[in-house]
Design a protein that fits this description.
Layout (H helix, E strand, L loop, with lengths): L4 H18 L9 E5 L2 E10 L9 E5 H14 L3 E7 L5 E5 H5 L4 E5 L2 E10 L4 E3 L3 H11 L5 E4 L4 E2 L1
Parallel strand pairs: 2-4
Antiparallel strand pairs: 1-2, 1-9, 3-7, 4-5, 5-8, 6-7, 9-10
């Protein structure tokens, strides 16, 4: 069976992840890397519905993802932007992960995996934008003024 370039890439990424895990290398896969006039930013992207109360509406990440990205920031001074496309209200929520993590949160265990804990941040802790020109400008100003390139590291090309 012939695989597409994308399918081959995904297979290669899975093989690399297994290799890194097997030989004991700590790793994580960033969704995006932004390069703006001030330097680099990594972006963690989710496309999902809101967490619903109790205790509050919000969005979150697996605590292992949070810890890996914040440790990376501490070592490199490269911040992580958490970007969520909300399927329930069709808005985009974003905030620096270190800012979110310094505020209010709630931890929820995944029912299918004892070791997986999701840290939920209140929806009020996020900045919000609409999917329009004004919303995009607001996000760009938030990341930092200046031009930047989006680099899709999964495909290894500029977008």
């Amino acid at each position: 069976m012939n695989m597409s370039i994308t399918e081959n890439g995904i297979k290669g990424e899975k093989l690399a992840e297994r290799l890194f895990r097997r030989i004991g290398l700590k790793h994580f896969q960033a969704d995006w890397i932004l390069n703006n006039s001030k330097g680099y930013v990594i972006v963690e992207v989710k496309n999902k519905e809101k967490f619903v109360p109790p205790p509050f509406y919000g969005h979150g990440l697996d605590i292992r993802q949070i810890n890996a990205r914040l440790k990376f920031q501490k070592l490199t001074n490269i911040r992580c932007l958490f970007l969520v496309f909300d399927k329930s209200d069709h808005k985009v929520y974003y905030r620096w992960l270190d800012k979110l993590d310094s505020g209010k949160c709630f931890e929820s265990k995944r029912w299918w995996a004892e070791h997986a804990t999701i840290r939920i941040y209140p929806i009020k802790s996020y900045k919000r934008m609409k999917l329009d020109t004004k919303g995009f400008s607001k996000l760009l100003n938030y990341i930092e003024k200046g031009t930047f390139k989006l680099i899709d590291i999964k495909k290894n090309n500029e977008v």
